[in-house]
Design brief:
By secondary structure, the chain is of the alpha/beta class. The protein has three domains: about 5-135, 3-Layer(aba) Sandwich (Rossmann fold); about 145-210, no CATH class; about 210-335, CobE/GbiG C-terminal domain (Nucleotidyltransferase, domain 5). Helices cover about 35% and strands about 20% of the residues. It is built from 13 helices and 14 strands. It has helices spanning about 10-20, 35-40, 55-65, 75-80, 115-130, 135-140, 145-150, 160-170, 225-240, 260-270, 275-280, 290-300, 305-310; strands at about 5, 30, 50, 70-75, 95-100, 105-110, 130-135, 155, 210, 215-220, 245-250, 270-275, 315-325, 330-335. The strands form three sheets. The protein has a seven-stranded mixed beta sheet. A five-stranded mixed beta sheet has the order 12-11-10-14-13. It has a two-stranded antiparallel ribbon with strand order 8-9. α9 crosses α10 (about 260-270). It starts with a strand and ends in a 5-residue tail after the last strand. Residues about 180-190 have low confidence and may be disordered.
Length: about 350
């Protein structure tokens, strides 16, 4: 988790160091120029220390979306004002936490569930000996919200409004079923359907999409972005898979400059990783339909199968071993689904 902490006082700086020592070793510390001068920090050799020489709201224009978690060692009211207008949606906003100047309280302020602020709040409080303050209704009631559940199993919510409605039922003491029926599907597999037994006329349903799909792509030189997107969507539809279930795409090192491939993944907001020849050769036995042409060109028998496997945890199965699609090959690997 990329984490930044901000302070504007000497006591606050001490708290920053305490958080860095006990919780986040790679913490980026932003300290005001005034405090830096008082403590003579410019002469200190401290890793990931940044001196603020501008107003914090202006700094946040550059850093707000750069980090997954922002910690402010200052008054909560001040933080509310300086982050005003920077948050957009609970499924994309970074987590925001405040800590008082003397490190008595740690407060989860923004993105408590999906951003992980509630969980990190408790972690920080434990690390520095403070009291965590969490105000989300499901947490204070000892219940789990739908968005927290999706975050725990590293899944993606299909519909925030549906999640809110189902969470509201949970908070208000209604019974909400989790559909993992043992006699229909094992606990770590996906289901294509569910049987709901209820005498209620209206039932709120919220779907979470686990991001446990890894795709491997091989393609000819100069392939277009549009072609890759069209064929990928086609295969995902044929497999009855959500496009947003893709955690990562992968290809061979020789495709790291393939513009069409890179632009396609950027448009679909899918991260892509490129593996070296040596890494592919280690799992080359996965390639069932070997290509002598590819072997002569780049030194391996295939790209899509080994790359899909290497991008994953290796614990799962191929849904599509390899399919040829007019100048490209595609493999789909499904990681085991981890549930609570």
């Amino acid at each position: 988790m990329r984490t930044a902490v901000y302070c504007v006082s000497k006591n606050g700086y001490k708290t920053c160091l305490k958080i860095k020592e006990n919780v986040y070793k790679n913490l980026h510390i932003y300290v005001s120029g005034r405090v830096a001068n008082l403590l003579n920090l410019e002469n200190e050799n401290i890793e990931n220390l940044f001196i603020i020489n501008e107003r914090v709201p202006i700094l946040l224009e550059k850093t707000f979306n750069k980090y997954d978690l922002h910690i402010f060692v200052t008054a909560t009211g001040a933080v509310v004002r300086i982050i005003d207008g920077k948050f957009k949606s609970k499924d994309t906003d970074p987590a925001v936490i405040t800590v008082d100047d003397h490190a008595n309280f740690v407060i989860s302020l923004l993105s408590g569930h999906l951003g992980g602020a509630n969980e990190e709040c408790e972690k920080i409080a434990q690390g520095i000996g403070a009291i965590p303050v969490i105000t989300t209704a499901s947490d204070v009631g000892g219940k789990i919200a739908v968005d927290t559940f999706s975050q725990k199993i590293k899944a993606k919510l299909e519909d925030l409004e549906g999640a809110k409605r189902v969470t509201s039922l949970i908070v208000n003491g209604e019974k909400v079923s989790l559909h993992l029926p043992k006699n229909i599907v094992s606990h770590n597999e996906n289901s294509a359907g569910a049987i709901i037994v209820s005498n209620r006329k209206n039932i709120e349903i919220s779907k979470v999409i686990p991001q446990n799909i890894f795709i491997g792509i091989g393609c000819r030189r100069g392939i277009s972005k549009e072609h890759i997107i069209e064929k990928l969507k086609y295969v995902m539809d044929k497999q009855n898979l959500e496009l947003s279930a893709i955690k990562m795409a992968a290809s061979a090192w020789v495709k790291s400059d393939e513009i069409g491939l890179i632009e396609a993944m950027e448009e679909l907001e899918i991260p892509i990783k490129f593996f070296d020849k040596e890494e592919i050769l280690k799992v080359e036995d996965l390639v069932e339909e070997r290509s002598e042409f590819v072997k002569n060109q780049i030194g391996v028998y295939g790209v899509s199968e080994p790359c899909a496997f290497l991008a994953s945890s290796g614990k799962g199965k191929f849904l599509v071993k390899k399919v040829k699609l007019d100048g490209m090959t595609l493999s789909i690997f499904e990681d085991e689904l981890k549930v609570l």
